[in-house]
Write a structure and sequence with these properties.
The chain is an alpha/beta fold. The chain contains 12 helices and 13 strands. The strands form 4 sheets. Strands 3-2-1-4-5-6-11 form a 7-stranded parallel sheet, with helices on both faces. The chain has a two-stranded parallel sheet with strand order 7-10. Strands 8-13 form a two-stranded parallel ribbon.
């Protein structure tokens, strides 16, 4: 039975514990693994808590399989933190084919490597990370199951009234970052079909950890009395704990051709209304710039809800936690999501 959610989150320790507490369904999924789990690109915003979540779920299931996190680990302390909670780490540049080929064999791969911010001006590196590397990984782990993290940015902009694109919506990415992400998907699709590699592609919009995320961007701007651009007036969000749980559970759904899954919360978030909610809590009037366009970058995750149930954390709960966190001066990684960008440049 899942424990009730706390009314507030008071520390990073409590936050990380909540983010990495496995659900009964995830424990069941992880207990069926017949091999170690390798997470490629573990040092990003979601990877560390996903690795810890997987380790805890395996422990709860009584499994002795390893969780192995691979990254360049430019911050050495992150590798130490992961090792301290039972996650094995390997320092490697995945674009180095010798380093990639030297990684351990495993039958379960989570691919989280990628590049978004800083893409403008270094497009060649973005394409190498987002399109060339997936081809290398798909070949290296052709005999594994692969869950590859993608983005809802591959979809066209749609009206909120449409409910957002389902997995059947034709892709139409805006800008080189999103185009390279579609390239990532195409590489995994090609090698999945060619090599019969069971694969799942997860189109995510947008994970929220109280140290970053769309909701946090809006809340901090209201609190700091900074203007909020309404050009992208709507978005979808999901609690990072729910997102990581779904990513790991997607191992059960890998197929050839790849299984595609939109991953986000059920609510279409109005940026204006969310800012006004924060304003009521903070006793401050939000400052808005511009007006909402008729379309936004959205994501319809009905298939996810049908297969795995709706997220455990609602938008209302997430907004409440976010407001408390901001008011208390909670930690931030200092990396805005730039959700408001409509030109595809990051």
């Amino acid at each position: 039975m899942t424990a009730p959610l706390p009314a507030g989150i008071e520390s990073e320790t409590q936050l990380d514990d909540l983010l990495t507490t496995p659900s009964p369904a995830l424990i069941e999924t992880m207990g069926k693994l017949d091999s170690d789990l390798i997470i490629l690109g573990v040092a990003g915003k979601m990877g560390p808590t996903l690795a810890r979540l997987a380790r805890r779920a395996l422990d709860e299931a009584g499994s002795k399989h390893n969780v192995i996190g691979v990254a360049r680990f430019s911050q050495a302390e992150l590798a130490d933190q992961l090792q301290n909670v039972g996650v094995q780490t390997i320092k490697a540049d995945l674009l180095d084919t010798d380093a990639l080929n030297a990684l351990p064999n495993a039958k379960n791969i989570i691919f989280m490597a990628g590049r978004k911010f800083g893409s403008t001006g270094q497009e060649e590196l973005t394409w190498a990370m987002n399109t060339y590397l997936p081809a290398l990984v798909a070949q290296r782990y052709r005999d594994a199951r692969i869950v590859a993290i993608s983005t809802g940015n591959v979809y066209p902009f749609m009206t909120p009234e449409s409910g957002g694109p389902t997995e059947d919506q034709p892709t139409d990415p805006v800008g080189e970052y999103a185009q390279s992400c579609l390239g990532r998907e195409r590489m995994f699709q090609y090698f999945s079909v060619t090599n019969k590699t069971p694969t799942a592609i997860i189109r995510l919009n947008y994970a929220v950890d109280l140290r970053y995320g769309v909701i946090m961007d809006v809340g901090r701007k209201v609190f700091d009395e900074q203007p909020i651009d309404l050009a992208m007036g709507y978005a979808n969000v999901i609690w990072q704990g729910d997102a990581n749980t779904a990513i790991l559970q997607a191992l059960d759904f890998c197929a050839s051709p790849p299984f595609i899954l939109n991953l986000t919360g059920p609510e279409i978030v109005s940026i204006r209304k969310t800012a006004e909610q924060f304003g009521e809590i903070f006793g401050k009037k939000p400052i808005f710039e511009g007006t909402e366009n008729q379309t936004a970058l959205l994501n319809n995750a009905s298939r996810y809800f049908e297969l795995m149930g709706k997220p455990t954390v609602s938008l209302q709960q997430l907004t409440q936690w976010a407001a408390q966190w901001v008011q208390a001066g909670g930690a931030s990684i200092g990396k805005p999501t730039h959700y408001e960008a409509r030109n595809g440049k990051f």
